[in-house]
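Supplementary notes for students who missed Thursday's class. We covered one full example, reproduced here. Read the sequence, then the structure, then the short commentary at the end.
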Amino acid sequence: MQLDLKDLAEQLFPYEFRPSQKKILDNLTTTLDSKTHLVLEAGTGSGKTVCALAPALAYALKYQKKIIYLTRTNSQQRQVIYELREIAKKYDELQPEQIGVEDKPDLYIVGLQGRLKLCPMLNQDPELSGATAEELSKICTDLKRITIQIMKNSGEGGDGSGIYQTKVKYGRKFSRKNGCGYYANVQKYDKNIIQTWAKSNLPTAEELMDYCRSNELCPYEVNKLLLEDAVVVTAPYVYVFQQHIRNRLMEWLNTNPEDLVLIIDEAHNLPDYAREIGSAELSLYTLNQAIKESRKFKNPKLLTKIEVGFFCEHLKEIIMDLVGEYINEDDGFIPPNELETEIMSRLTLTSNKLRLLINDLIIHGEIIQDQKRKRGKLPRSYIHSVGLFLLFWTSLESGEVDGINISSDKYAKLIKNGDNSKIEAYCLDPSVVTHVINQFASSCCMSGTLKPLDEFQASIGLPDKETVAVSYPSPFPVENRAVYYISDVTTKYDVISSDKSVVEKMENYIQNICNGFDKNILVFFPSFGLMQQFLDDGVHQGLKNRFYIEQQTMNQNLLMDLVENFKVQENGTLFSVVGGRISEGLDFPAETLEIIIIAGIPYPKPTAKQRALEHYYDTKFGKGWDYTVNAPTTRKLLQSIGRLIRDENDRGVVLILDKRANRFKEYIEGIRPSIDPIVDIQKFFRG
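Structure (token representation):
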């Protein structure tokens, strides 16, 4: 008997239903059936991943669709694959007629990673460590072309013999002129063997890399082989939201967005991520490198008879003059046509000649890229980067960029001061990038922190009539967590800059609580700058417990080592920042974390960029402050608080050192003031 979509989703669900899980399942089933969109907020521990996968998979199997599941981190990607393995056990029990097909399709998943992470050849070349995806793609294309030619010349067949048999070994140095043996082995390898292994194991990206290492294969190319037949693909955000990478993914899948279900995990990150990749900047560093590059390549002349180096020197001078004229503290606004006007005035150019000059910069950059490629070097050109930026910058006024209609009011033109001053075309409207979600058959944006839901939905451009937004509370007992705030302190800038006693009070609270409890305590500051101010005052010197601090420049491995060392302590103190890597996506189960101190409300700094955002959202929605100040601050607070309770047995206390915390009582369940936090925390743990 054929199951309807809802029943099929429940059959695939591999666990006993927790509170709210059946409702989440029903919400997504209805969304998929009606080909609409779902904005889902569900507290930590709700099982969002499996609740999204089961109905999405039911829909994909029933209607021959595929699923793209986007994550922000590798650990989240692994979780998707682990949950699919559990679902696969239930899938094996189903009969074809229950799904509504004659033959049950094979169920397997591909975990996509970037080329630099997966490619064994590129990982062995230090020069490529900072390469962009586009640069790596060009290098890879060259290597494959050389490899195919070598294989033809050597007469290699499919018997595994040939020049690569002995030369290819993981971890060995290589010469690009010899091509890529890993790619050659993929060409000779039996695709059916790889697919059979993938379907049997449902591997993570790391497990795929191990398999490929043992067989001397390229994991990146193997992933591409598997994609066309995969039912589920889990990938970083960039695979959908960067247009040229999305186009490539659609080619590999041999499909279109309208035949795909899109699930976006940790979606509270999406608006800022979209603004970032929708923006463009030009720094003094890039211009200096372009000048050096022009000298190295004999300072080519543009069609306007202006030398590249001469032009870049003038552009540097213009940027420095703009810094002096428009900067107010950190940044400032540049009038719409100011940069173009200055260039044309100083170099006596017409607007038409400026367009020719920009196109010529891009052409010269492409020539340099090709020359570097032929010499086996990283195909990077800073002259090309300057040209592309100026093309983007000047195109904004015409309302079209890369074939997409973009009105200039969706961007702010900014000048930023510092050691590396820069101009930036800052994307104010994330829907410039996220509008692609509407092309998919159906979508689900989910996170533990999406409030206010109406702001999130509006920001990313989901249509009102075709979108449902729902929120479910944490499944864990409310009495397991207490949230207090202190009313006699604040990190409001004009207060702490004029009254040093407020900072001293906050430092006393931190020291007394950290020294008063033999527990692991995490102290979040609104920014690295404020944390440094407290460290300069010596707040950590009065701590009895072992002390750890997150450095802004730490790479991921060092940060994970720091976190693991903190977790094994019984009474350690860790200093970190709200909105940083520790405050999002990391688990601190049981006694690894029992008290969180949030030393101030993480309101955004009132920069020109922030003012531009607020003005844009005021104009578009009439809610500038709500959407650009209150909403992101709420999410940052909730993400930080969310580190505390990870399962039904966890217990812990959050203390917010800022009287303004009372403004967030609509979103932070159970928040209340504390006159004596030491006593309140003691009572909580005794109770």
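Commentary. The first strand starts at residue 37 and ends at 42. The chain has 30 helices and 20 strands. If anything here is unclear, bring it to office hours.
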